[in-house]
Design goal:
The chain is an all-alpha fold and 116 residues long. The chain contains 5 helices and no strands. 84% of the residues lie in helices and 0% in strands.
Length: 116
Amino acid sequence: MTTAEEYRTASAELYDQAMFELDAGDMRQASEKLWGASAQALKSLAERRGWRHGSHGEFYRIIRRLRNEMDVAELRQQFAFASELHTNFYENWLDESEIRDSAVHVSDFVDRLARL
């Protein structure tokens, strides 16, 4: 079983890889790795709290639960950016500036979850 710390480490590694891919011009891989960084950060938080985290649906339930607990609407918005990036891996319609903008939101999202 993966630990919360292993998920957190994976999140940081995926974010770094995303920035490398973005600088190399691979928008699809950058998008997917940013999504992965977000997903791993959610898994880390869920693991620490004993919450289920095995599906996309459970990710949304975690976000809802956090919003209800803390009234932090930004988490939902930031997760929406990450989800859009996941879709972009398949559709490839975001341009570099949009992905870079989303990367800022993902970075803040990952940092927030690590502090909870």
